[in-house]
Amino acid sequence: MSMKAVSFVANSGTGKTTLLEKVIAILKGRGYLVGALKHDAHRFDIDHPGKDSHRLTAAGADTMLISSQEKLALVKKHAASPPIEELLATYFTDMDIVLIEGFKKSYLPKIELHRREKDSTLLCRGDFYDSALLAVASDEPLELDVPLLNINDPEQIADFIEERFLR
To answer: pTM for this one?
Structure first.
């Protein structure tokens, strides 16, 4: 796939969203079009009771799209989560880079986030060896076969993504 995408993987509570917010802002500041895709293993709802969009979905609409001058939101019911390839090809072809939160079992290139107080082992270098691991961003020194980044330095992580995917 020619789509430029990298997945940030870690156990819950490691700070994926907080770090992604910072990296997105840095890359946007450098002039890139940045997409974000989050995998949610739980049920979520962006439609809220009382809103017209919720009423239309509750009435049985299988697909409901709300659009304004500034943005659009799509609610599409499905029996199973679409494959990551389909999501990227359908919604992100106009982006320079897509930063993904989750999808740790995908083939996508990954940056694993690691915090000393949260995890004793790595997801991608523990019981399972993930060949798609590009780097680890950690708050402690680790012996690795991939580059080690500072999880508390979003500039460094943005630089790594820019050098690897955008030049």
So the answer is: 0.89
